[in-house]
Amino acid sequence: MSEQLKFIVEQLNREPFKKNFNLITFDSLEPMQLLQTLNDALAEIDPKQAIDIREEMPEQTAKRMFTLLGMLKYKPPGGMSEVFRQGLVIGSKPVVHPILHWLLQRIPELKKRAYLARFLVKLEVPAEFLQDDVIAETFHQYEELVGGFKNIHKECEQLKSSGFSTAEIRRDIVAMEEEKDQLIKRVERLKKRVEAVSNHQRMLELARQLRVEKEREESLAHQKQEQKNQLFQAEQRLQRCQIQLRDLQQAAADEKPESLMKRLEEDIKFNSYMVSEKLPRELENTRKVVKYLQKVASEPALGQAELRELEDKIRETNTEINHLIEKKMMRNDPMDDKLSLFRQQAAIIVRKKETKVEELQEAREELAAVERELNMKSSQAQERGGAKLIRGDEFKRYVAKMRGKSSTYKKKRQEIAELKVEYGVLQRTEEILRERHTAGQQQLESLEAQRGISGYSDTQEELERVSAIKSELDEMKGRTLDDMSEMVKKLNSVIAEKKSALSPLIKDLRALRQEHAVKFEQKKAQYDTCAAGLESNRSKLEQEVRMLREETAQEESRYHHINCMREITESQMERAADQTLEHIALDVFFYKAEEHCVTVGLQVLRQQVKQVRENQEPNMRQMKMWKDLETLLECKKQCYLKAQSQAPIGHIIQDVGKDMLVL
Asked: How far is CA 384 from CA 233, 372, 381, 394, in A?
């Protein structure tokens, strides 16, 4: 419950409500204020609900809220009972708080639902009124408008989700307008240039005729291309028909009349089954699905909570169906069991028949698709200069040709194998030569060691390589030194130019520094004094805020203590409800009175806190004045006593309005 209240307070403090509530102020709202808050939330969903509930009767307010909540498909925890209706009329917290929590959770969705309900909730017209032709025609137009609104709304949602934004469209429009202006200016410039030419009207007429003829030429070329495409498609259809005719003639030449009749009878049986049984059943199922989809499309959009409720209902219904089937199977007698066996066998045969028919239909469709693809491929091959589809003797000649090619392929493969063997021999020769080279190098190294010049050949090669690298580095160093000297000269010249240009500016800068140094010190002193004053004010304000927060924390703790006491009282009331029926009325009255006393005490404490906050400063001033008065009176008393003690015996002390004799 506390989480629910926190969520409601957070949402009401945000845009667009800005109620500035906390848990204490929201919980202490009067029923009329709570109903007004609920009405403000409903007005945010439907602007027509923006009404001050003090200006209408409570029955009208409750009826209006009931209607809107029903349209928004709100379902209270206990259903639309009489307790819920009475609680909404009197502004009961256990009824209003769940409604606010449900509304504030899904405001965008409910806005859309309320907007659609204005146009999609159909008017209920009695059947006897629809007998009138004018009313019936008007109602028919109304239904057509509702259907048109559905289609337009769907298109609008599709456009919103398609990714097109108004900013992009506006930018495109601005760009097109700019292009239009540029074209208009260009046309005007061209007109001015053309007007200077003699006989320009005749030339413009000829240019117009030329443009018309070019457009006509383009249209004729387009028509020619379309006719070529149509001719090509017709030729393809003719080739396919010729191929089918030739295939049918060949098939008919090989078959007998009995086989042809048998095949035709099978086709007739299959087609009659499809027409009389399968297709009508599929058509009826499709009509049911379309009707169901139309019904679903005509209803308003459902939220996630409603979808979950429907899924729960579907699961419950399925479980009930399963229980009923089990009960029926348990109640079946032996005769019904025998009949059910035959029924099951008949159903199995029907299903097998349907599956076989579907398989046959799929096979025929696949055969037709393959034949179409074969005809298309053959026609494409003929167009590209390829060979036709071979049959009979041509196929035999093709097989003999392929055999000759296979023998040639075997010979070539044998030659490739011989070349591979020769390649292996060459690889081995290369390895032997590398080994001999390595052995020669080793022998050369041994001879160099015997002569005392080991590493001579390697050193000579290394020296040659190092000398080549050194010559390259020397060339690079020479180029680098020249470049660096040129760069140093350029930098020195640039630095001298910059110094000569900056010297007058530096002199001016020194004068300005001396001129503005005094102003800077003055401004800095002013800033320091202002900062010190603000810092002292800030510390005072922080201290006051700290004290007020401590007082607020104390009052909140007191409120929570009283709230806990109230909850304890409520639990005691619930415990007392389980007692005997004789004392229940007295106990309930006692606890209600105690709760009322606690509530009244809470209100008194709130008023006292408010009075303390309001009268704190006057009371403090008054207390200070009383203390000053007390100090003054005490001082007068001491003076008086001192005067009495110092007076001689028999001396008369005169005071205001009386004389005293000291004995």
From this structure: 16, 18, 5, 20
pTM above 0.90, yes or no: no
473 or 180, which is more confident: 180
Residue of higher predicted confidence among 389 and 500? 500
Structure tokens at 618: 């006057």
Dist CA 306 CA 310 (whole Å): 6
Strand partners, 653: 660
Quote the tokens at residue 200.
Answer: 């320009």
Find out whether 590 and 598 touch, Cβ atoms under 8 Å. no
pLDDT digits (tens, 9 = 90+) for 578-632: 666 656 566 666 667 777 777 887 888 888 778 777 877 888 888 888 888 888 8
- The rounded mean pLDDT for the chain is 78
d(C-alpha 115, C-alpha 112), whole Å? 5
φ, ψ at 579 (rounded to 5°): -75, -175
Q: How deeply is 33 buried, as exposed, middle or buried, from its count of CB atoms within 10 A (0-12, 13-18, 19+)? A: middle
Distance CA 141, CA 189 (A): 55
b (16+ CB within 10 A) / e for 61-90: bbebbbebbebbebebeeeeeeebeebbbe
The DSSP code sequence of 186-210 is HHHHHHHHHHTSTTHHHHHHHHHHH
Q: Residue 655: helix, strand or coil by DSSP?
A: strand
Return the SS3 of 92.
coil
Residue type, 5: L
> Residue 657: pLDDT band by 50, 70, 90 thresholds?
very low
Amino acid identity, position 121: V
Distance CA 32, CA 47 (A): 20
As a whole number of angstroms, the distance between CA 189 and CA 210 comes to 22
The confidence score (pLDDT) of residue 165 equals 63
Distance CA 159, CA 114 (A): 21
**Start-to-end C-alpha separation, the chain:** 83
Query: pLDDT tens digit string along 444-467?
Result: 778 777 777 766 667 777 777 777
